[in-house]
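quick one, two chains, predict together pls
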Amino acid sequence: MGCSSSKTQVIEPGKDNTSERGTSERHTSDNSSENESNDQADQKSESVFSNSRKNSTLASSKTSVKPRSYKLNYFDFSGRGELIRLIFAVSNTDYNDERTGFKDWQTKRKKTPLEQLPNLEVDKEPTLVQSMAIARYLAREMNLAGSDNYEIAKVDFVLDLCKEFMDLLAAYVFPELLFPTDEKEEIIDNFLKHVAEDFLKNIEILITKFGKNGYAVGNKLTVADLFIHDLVSNMIKLDSFVLDNYSKLKQNRNKVEDNSNLKSYLDNRRKMQKLNF
Amino acid sequence: MSDYNLKYFNLRGRGEITRLIFAASGKKYNDERVEFEQWPAQKNQAPLGQLPYLKVGPVELPQSLAIARFVARETGLAGKNSLEQAQADAVVETIMEPVNYYYSNIFRIQDADEKAEAFRAFLKEQGTKGAQNVEKLVGMYGSNGYSVGDSLSWADLAIFDVIFSLLSKHPEFSEKFPALNAVYENVKANPGVAEYVKNRPETPF
């Protein structure tokens, strides 16, 4: 699964990097034109915020000139690592997708800083831990964090809700999918009926409030869209009709899947999936 | 009249990290504290019906960590660059793990003896593991009494808050976790924090 080609994204200081994606050798013209038209919309809305909350040096990294080398360490399933893979995929960024099998974990764990996965190795920097710290970092690097401090805060808020839901998925559902017990059906049923419904209801309200043109927050793709997509993908495996009553979420999912980089990643993932999730 | 209004109970709890960020940065804000009796009447005004939330301009932001991260960015305490911000996030997430465990499993115990016993066990296990993990991260990311890089960030303030409330009760804390202790002492000496801590209302937690 590791992307081993030498092409990496060149970050040029002082430039808006979203429109630079056309420099890739891969077919990304759809993605870059989508970003360009969104950039124009952003420039209009940016002037509204120019006096107050925009803090672009923190919103995205414009300090590095060399492409970074990234290595994601995680298990060979989606779980808490998939959001990070989606960020790399959407931004068309090369990285080493290192997947550890469960049987290798007991030996490998001592070599990780906190005996937890995922973690991210960036160049020669100390290993970055915590899935959400990693996701937020890469979102900033790839211009998927939000356009100004207000938007970043809204994205953060959505991410926090998603993380709470992911924690519950990891506590109740993933174990049953990996090592099913007799209670599997009942647990999953209860989970869908209560925990999942609450989460979907809240997210539907928030994206209606925060998002435009089908996006979750603001009017372009952010890491919030990706995390929502990831969590709904997990739920669809349990119940393919899970979004039936959520028109905004359905619209959002279609919009996100319009992204050509994501489309090819998802197509590839469907082919590669050995486990059920 | 300041731009920022932080609304929370008259407790440290999940609001204190943001109050400490304001205190360390010197940025003015309205520290609105709601008494328990007033809360039911006001609950439906709060986004998602929860506290804390921060009102700034037209935006009402709940979720204690989203608020803290936002205010840290506004006050220059998020981390000096994107990678340091990520390291600060990682430190905060890691120190919140034992805190969340405490809230989920220990906080609600009614019986005083049972609670004390559970808390002792917590300190020995989850509390110790959490402190060990953060001690390790501080060694990787920080230096000289800072948990990330070489300057104050909200990660230091989170460490201070958690140590003050929970981990200071850990036996031999300062010897077992010297890097954490160095951060704790460093934050304690910060003039903005020291002034704030001296004057803040005393609350059970």
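The CA atoms of residues 144 and 223 of chain A lie 5 Å apart.
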